[in-house]
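Let's study a protein:

___
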Amino acid sequence: MQFSEILASLPSIDHLAAIELYASNDQTNAIARIENKPGSAGSVRVYHALLQEFSGITVDAAIKGLELYAEHTADALAFPGKHPNIDRLIQVKVSGQVLNAKFIAT
């Protein structure tokens, strides 16, 4: 399946303005904020679905997220830095670091 088809199957994010990500040992300083706006709304939708299923961005969540990003994962691997939200999942998969999150309501 293409990313656009996968995205359409994920839960709605209309209630979210953003998702903030935190290192598991630091809940006060966000390491990333993914805004629900054009250009990053798809990532909010992917991360939201992962967080609903896994309660954090774990290695298993990262693996599933890389599958959800479909063709964009190959592009991220070929061009590091082009897709920071995918790069983050690759880093979690490699490092084993767990990320926690806060949902920011609209």
The chain has a mean pLDDT of 97.
